[in-house]
Specification:
mainly alpha; two-stranded parallel ribbon
Amino acid sequence: MQKGTQEYEQALDALIEILRARARQGATPIQYGDLSSELARLGHHVPAHEGPMPFLLEDASAQESPDGRLPLLSALVVLKDSRRPSGGFFKLARRAPYKRQGDDEVLWINELKELAKEYVNR
C-alpha cells in the first residue's frame, strides 16, 4: 500500500472513522494490533507495527488538525506492553504545527482529555 493511492486513502478514511468513534466514546485508547484487526475487518490490510501504519496515523492527525489547534487522533493508539503511544506520536506532537509541551505522560493525558471534549458531541 503506497501513500497517495486510492487503497491508502480508503484505509486512511477507515482509520479516521475508527479513531473518531473511539474519541466519541470518551477517548478510549486502542492497541495497534486491535486497530490493525479493525482495519482488516473493513478490508484494509495494515500491519500493526510496519508498513503504512505510522504514515496513516500521522496523516489522520494532520487531516483532523491541519493547523495544530485540535487534538491529535493518533494519541488514541497505544502499544500493547506499555499501554502508551509509541515514540512516533510524541515526536509528531512536539513538531510544528502542533508544538505540544510537557513531559510525555502529561502531553498524552492532555491530548486524550481534549479528544474526549472535542468529539463527544460529533
